[in-house]
Structures are given as C-alpha cells and as structure tokens.
Amino acid sequence: xxxxDGLLLDMNGLFRHWHNTGAQTSEQRAGLPTGxxxxxxxxxxxxxxxxxxxxxxxxxxxxxxxxxxxxxGPAVGNHLGPWRADRGEPDRTMIGLLRQIRGxxxxxxxxxxxxxxxxxxxxxxxxxxFIFPSAGLGVDxxxxxxxxxxxxxxxxxxxxxxxxxxxxxFVLAAGTVGMQALPFKDAADFAAHLRRLGxxxxxxxxxxxxxxxxxx
Length: 216
Hints:
With about 220 residues, the chain is an alpha/beta fold. It is about 45% helix and about 10% strand. It has 2 domains: about 5-15 and about 90-205, HAD superfamily/HAD-like (Rossmann fold), CATH 3.40.50; about 20-85. The protein has 11 helices and 7 strands. The chain is elongated and about 60 Å long. The strands form 2 sheets. It has a 5-stranded parallel sheet. A two-stranded antiparallel ribbon has the order 2-3. It has helices at about 20-30, 35-40, 45-50, 55-70, 80-85, 90-100, 115-125, 135, 145-155, 170-175, 185-195, and strands spanning about 5-10, 15, 90, 105-110, 130-135, 160-165, 180-185. Helix 7 links the parallel strand 4 and strand 5. The two termini are about 35 Å apart.
C-alpha cells in the first residue's frame, strides 16, 4: 500500500511545457521586438492580479492588449491571436503516468495560474481529481496557505500528501507545511520516487523521454 494518501502536483514543467511560439508569431506579425509580449503580459503587475483571482484571464489579456495598443498602435490587437491560442505543449509521458497513478491515489494539481487552468486541462486532455489554480484559491505559491488550502479541499492532511514541483522554492515551501515535498526532474525520476512511496507502477512507465522544460 502507498505510504501516502494523495498526490499534489505542479502543472507547468511537468504536464505542460511552454515554448512561447504563439507569442513569437504574434510579435513577428505585429512588428514587435522579441520579448515584448512577455514583458507586457507576464512581467506586469496585472498578471499577479490574475494569478490570485482579482482579474479573470480574459480581463488580464484585455489589459495586455490595451497597453500594447497604447504604446505600439491599435493594429497590434489584430495580431495577438497566436499568443492567446498557444496553450503550451502537453507532455504525453507524464499524462500517461497520471492516468496510472489515479488508479491508486487521488491526484490534485496546484498551479500558479489564472482561471484558464480548467479549460487548458480539457484542451490537452489532462484529468486530475482536484484542480487548484492559484486564481481559484486567492493565493499563490510559495505561500504556505496555498498548500494548506489545497490539502484541505482534498480532504487529506498535509502530512499524508506528496508534492512534486520543478521550482525549488515551491518544493521548500510545501515541505514547511508537512508535505513530502520532492523536486521534479523528469518522468523516470518521478515514477521512481512514487514507487519508493509505495505506488505500484509497472517498470515500463519509466521509459520514454519527456519534453524539454520551458517554464513561464
């Protein structure tokens, strides 16, 4: 039997990888300098507001478009479609592992993101038992409250949960609330950790490369 009662996982870098090809396409079509969309979208305070649920994903995107139009002209808005349509690249190896794990344990996803997470999961065909975008919690990682709230909603004590993330700061934060917090390296290492925790995954699940990590 597994030594844990549930699993809580990060999203980006594990099940989805960002290559930002949509933003690059939009920048090329609009004649914007490389990196402009990232600066206006993810490096701006409005993104944090969307991540904790003050703004919806659409309100945040509209704000990005308005600021770009103000600085680069209204025609920019006609070229932002590829950026918005890009939902990242799913990691099929990890999705396959997830299906197997859910046969033994409830699995939740805790991600610093907007309220678009559920739609993105559906888009990629990724199914979790519990879905926790930071926008829905009103707090984002590495706050201990984010981890405690997710555990409470799963109905599982933090000490009975294992947590995986590719961001070392978030791993440390999860450990402070009593979770068995472990760094994510790749699918094979992830599966090996789960076996040590008593999850009976077949050896074949360790094979196969994962997509390159590309965080956002």
